Amino acid sequence: MRPLRATGRPWIVPLLLLLVTAVMALPALPHRAGGGTEPAAAAARDSGGGAPRPQARDVVLAVHGGAGTALRREDTDARTEKAYRDGLAAALRAGAKVLRDGGDSVAAVEAAVRVLEDDPLFNAGKGAVFTEDAGHELDASVMRGSDQAAGAVAGVRHVRNPVSAARLVMERTRHVMLAGEAADAFAARSGLTPVTQDYFWTQQRWDELMKAKGTRPAARTPGASTTGTVGAVALDTRRGLAAATSTGGMTNKMAGRVGDSPVVGAGTYAKNGNVAASATGQGEVFIRGAATATISHLMEFGGMDVAEAAHEVVIRRLPKLGGTGGVIALDSRGTYAAPHSSEGMLHGYATADGRIVTRVFPDEDDGGR
C-alpha cells in the first residue's frame, strides 16, 4: 500500500475541523412531534413553565359551567359573582349528597348537572341559547366508567333535563344516542314531563341572538361570553367513575347542528381505573380532536397522569386544530385537573371531607399548569 501523498490543498483538513467545531457549538433547537422545529418561546409557553399540576386532590365531584371569555373582576358586580358561585356550589352540593348517601357516580353527575340545567345562568336546559331560527335544541350525554356504558340525546326540544334523558337512553335502550323528535318522544314515554319551547327562553339569550344577527349593539353582559355548557365528573366510594355533559349549543347555530357534548369520546368520557372527563368549548374542534377519549388514552397507553394528559389535549393539541375550551378531568385516585385554553372556565369541586370550592375568575387558578 502506497503512502498518502499531499494533494496540493493542505487547507482542506483544517477547514473541515473548523466547520465541525462550529456545528457542535450550535444550541439545540426544540423538536416538535412530526418533524420540524418550533421557537423556544412557544415551547416554553406550551409547557407552562414546568410539568402541568392538578387543581386539587382527594376530589369526589367536580362541575363546570362553561369555558370562554372569562368573568372579569373589574366589571362583575358582587351580585353576579355570587349568582355564579351559588349555581356551581348548588350543583356540587346536590352531587355530593348523592355520594354521601351511598349513591353511585352516575347518579351523582346526573344530580349535579340537573341543577345546572335548571339555572338560567348556564347554557343548558333553562337558559339555553337560540338557534338561527330562534328555537332551542339541546344535547347531553352520560357515561359510566365501570362498563363504559353511555347514553346521549341530541337536538331535543321539549326535555327539561336532557341529562336525565341521556341516562334513560343508557339504561333502558340498546342504543347510545337518540336524536330529534324521536328522542323527545322517548323521554316522554319514559316518564320525563315535556316542556314547551318557551320554558327555555331568557332575555339574556335572546339579546345574544339579536347581537349575533347584528340587530343589537354589542354591549357586554356579565357572563354572556362564557359558553355556558355544563358538565360533571364523579368518583364514588366503590371507585366508580362517571361523567356527564349538557348544552344548548352555540348561539345562532344552524338548526340540526350537534356539537361535542352528546358525543362519547369528544365531550364526555369515563373509564374506571383511568379517568372521567367532561369538556366545554368549540365543539367541532373537540369532536375532531376526540378530546376526552384522547385524555383517557394518553393516560392508559401513554403513561401520563391526569394533569399531563388533560394539558396535552386542551393546551397543546386542540388549539392547533383551531379551537379553544376547557375540560374537567378526575382520575381514580381523586386527582382533579381543569386546564383551559380559553380566557376562563367556570368550575368547582367537592372533596371527600366535604369542602366545596368554586372558581369563577381567571386569577383563581392557573388553567391547570
Could you list some keywords that capture this structure?
369 residues, alpha+beta, Glutamine Phosphoribosylpyrophosphate, subunit 1, domain 1, four-stranded antiparallel sheet, disordered N terminus
Written account of the structure:
The protein has about 375 residues and is of the alpha+beta class. It has helices at about 10-25, 40-45, 80-100, 105-115, 160-170, 180-190, 205-210, 285-290, 290-300, 305-320; strands at about 60-70, 140-145, 150-155, 175-180, 230-235, 240-245, 270, 275-280, 325-330, 335, 345-350, 355-360. Helix 3 (about 80-100) runs antiparallel to helix 4 (about 105-115) and helix 4 runs antiparallel to helix 5 (about 160-170). The longest helix is centred in the N-terminal third of the chain and has 23 residues, at about 80-100.
Quick summary:
With 369 residues, the chain is α+β, with helices and mostly antiparallel strands. It has helices spanning 12-24, 40-47, 78-100, 105-117, 162-172, 180-189, 203-212, 283-288, 291-300, 306-320; strands spanning 59-68, 138-144, 150-156, 177-179, 230-235, 241-247, 268-271, 275-281, 325-331, 336-337, 344-351, 356-359.
